[in-house]
Amino acid sequence: MKHKNLMSLPFTLWAIIFIVLPLCLIVWYGITLEIPVEYTQITLEDGSTAYKLEDGTVQTQEPWQKKAVISFSNFKRMVEPTYLKLLIRSLRVALLTTLICLLLGYPVALILTGKDFKHPSLWMMLIILPMWMNFLLRTYSWMSILENSGILNSWIASLREAIPAFDKFLSDRGVGNKIIFLYNENAVILGMVYNYLSFMIMPIYTVIEKIDRSLLEAAADLGASPSKSFLRVTLPYSLPGVLEGVTMVFVPAVTTFVISQLMGGGKVPLIGDVIQNQFGKSSDWHFGASLSLLVMVVVLAFMRGLHSIDKEEEVQKEVRIF
Amino acid sequence: MKKLRKVYIALIMVFLYAPIVLLVLYSFNDSKSRAKWGGFTLRWYQELFSDKVIISSLGTTLSIGLLAAVISTILGTFGAIVLYQMKRGPRNMMLNVVNLPMLNSEVVTGVSLMLLFALAKLQMGYMTLLLSHISFCVPYVVLSVMPKLRQLEPNLAEAAQDLGATPVQGFFKVILPDIMPGVVSGFLMALTMSIDDFVVSFFTTGSGVSNLSITIYTMAKRGISPKINALSTLIFGGVLILMLILNLKDMKNPDGAKKIEKVKIPY
Amino acid sequence: MFEKETGIEVEYMVYETNEDMYAKIANGKSSYDVIFPSDYMVERMIRENLLQKINWDNIPNVANIDPRFMNQAYDPESQYSVPYTWGTMGILYNKSMVEEVPTSWKTLQDERYSMNMLMLNSPRDTIGIALIMSGHSLNATDAAALEDAKQLLIEQKPLVLAYVVDEVKDKMIAGEAAVAMVWSGDATFSMAENDELDYVVPEEGSNIFFDAICIPANAKNVSGAEKFIDFLCRADIAAKNYEYVGYAIPNKAAIEVLGADEYNASPVNNPPQEVLDKCEVFKYLGEDTKLYDQVWTEIISEY
Question: CATH no. for residue A137?
Answer without folding.
Answer: 1.10.3720.10
